[in-house]
Amino acid sequence: MTATPSSPRSLNVDLGERSYPIHVAPGLLDDPQSLRPYLAGRQVMIVTNETVAPLYLERLKGGLEDDLDVREVILPDGEHTKTLASVERIWDALLAAGFNRRCTLVALGGGVIGDMVGYAAACYQRGVAFIQVPTTLLSQVDSSVGGKTGVNHPRGKNMIGAFWQPRAVLIDTGTLTSLPDRELSAGLAEVIKYGLIRDAAFLDWLEANMGELLDRDADLLSEAILRSCAIKAEVVAADETEQGARAMLNLGHTFGHAIEAHQGYGKWLHGEAVGAGMLMAAMLSRQLGWLSEADVARVARIIAAAGLPMAAPASMDADAFLERMRLDKKNIDDRIRLVLLNALGEACIHDETPPAQLRSFLDDYPRA
Amino acid sequence: MTATPSSPRSLNVDLGERSYPIHVAPGLLDDPQSLRPYLAGRQVMIVTNETVAPLYLERLKGGLEDDLDVREVILPDGEHTKTLASVERIWDALLAAGFNRRCTLVALGGGVIGDMVGYAAACYQRGVAFIQVPTTLLSQVDSSVGGKTGVNHPRGKNMIGAFWQPRAVLIDTGTLTSLPDRELSAGLAEVIKYGLIRDAAFLDWLEANMGELLDRDADLLSEAILRSCAIKAEVVAADETEQGARAMLNLGHTFGHAIEAHQGYGKWLHGEAVGAGMLMAAMLSRQLGWLSEADVARVARIIAAAGLPMAAPASMDADAFLERMRLDKKNIDDRIRLVLLNALGEACIHDETPPAQLRSFLDDYPRA
Lengths: 368, 368
Description:
By secondary structure, chain A is of the alpha/beta class. The first copy, chain A, has 13 helices and eleven strands. Chain A has two domains: 9-177, 3-Layer(aba) Sandwich (Rossmann fold); 181-364, Dehydroquinate synthase-like, alpha domain (Up-down Bundle), CATH 1.20.1090.
């Protein structure tokens, strides 16, 4: 894999009439031409949050307001705001502005903003256009691609939502310079995930370059984003609505969602919970005889190197995990479905872990 | 067209992998086998309202509870309950029951229940199965078929929703015996609509048989339902998400929705507002030179014969209409789109009525 410094690069998510491009380049935010080809009409609603707005909102609006009807909604920041009430604020603003079916929503922010705006677009007048402009590494490599939208419910993460594809994903890699370290690490959790589930060579590359990635080497980050998006695009194109193989993208997420929900959304970042969850999945795969001790040690090392937590929260016993995991969307009837690893670079979907073994594994897993 | 007394009859809505059958017969509610082929798994949530539950809920549940996990949600009755808050009650019940992606929602009731349950199914865990069991004439001939789901917003009808197709539509014509007269008439508005937009021979048939239909002749009602569903299925199959021709199903609805929203949902029944709205559309089509006086007189006669209102509410001036009509989902940018009639049996979609002419038409239209 070679990096092409500073050049804009693009991928296509191949979904028939719902196909769309992902553009990756520094400075996309400042170029009004990057957005224009994907607008459905003259009405544009940019939705962002209080953290991102001061950094990027005016830059994105520049050059659009001359001839378009551009409005904005600025929501509070944080996973705890990912609720139906926030989406209702977007709908209220659209209706107050008299926006019709030809309007376009623009999600400017991280995964929370992207998921909520996508869901708002999916259901406004039964579906309008939207564009993802992700500003965190996590949303750039994961949530902005693939059309999963939605909000949390007190009983579970992303329980209310829709599959609704954006018209385009515009990734301005310049936004990563302002990202807090903790969020950079959280994004790297999803990057590592792609290596673990499907691309052992990418995992090798990440091991070799983790230091430079944490130092925000622009070309290496750009390369990691492109490679991650390419893997996600392949998986999504093969299984848009998660009837089967797409579930592999949930490596670490069943454990991770349980942690997030139990701790209260926002205490752990999503990527942090996924980091610990991936190590849990690797260790359970080892117990089932699929990975070697050396494999698990590699997983632990790269998760630690990325600055991610490895232990589960001290406050969560096995029951706390199991109660949340039973509500996971992947489950069919009463069986808990997990994404595990047959090998490093090869995920599998498994719903035959004996309940007693799963409980004993959860009892024994390290807590911090 | 001949009626086949008391035999179950079926149609198919042809939407590729989203195709589904419509079954029409007396007694379907009492036959658990009518529902079973369309269940996604063992978890079944029946949603109905306080009016319908005492009449049909136990009959529908009979024979299902032995081997399935059957739960219920009973909502208040009425168009004013068609809100996001009601849909949240359904989601809360699904999550409290621990229902997963393989659950099936069953909408037992009229159009309000069907629209809300369809929307709840569209967004629960990003989409689960649902079955329509419509118990009013209006929902049997219109809202249960075609996958339009959603709720009202204080600023407009059906502003929040999704296209989400049911697995099956089960129409028990026996439910019409308990339907209030006013609701029978409201349902006939949509039946008349099918004749007006697409089937002049059906319009002739309706004129000849309106008396017997109001007297609830079972075979004639069954015939009217089948013919209506067949027309709707054809239109929907050609344009599932209303990019074009499907909008013709909105004859009378732009004026009608404005009446409903202005009066407060539930004061006028939807079918009543559509009845007046269709006469308004016919009279505007006459002004544009497309229909004859005799055509308009026929429309007025059959609307009156069905027991539907012809005048607009006295409290609504032209501004009150226009303000609501500007928010109609059919509009593109700033133009009001109307469904009008080129001839009886032939609808057209028109957004070139000069604003001054539309205002003058609204000023002059009879009020009561």
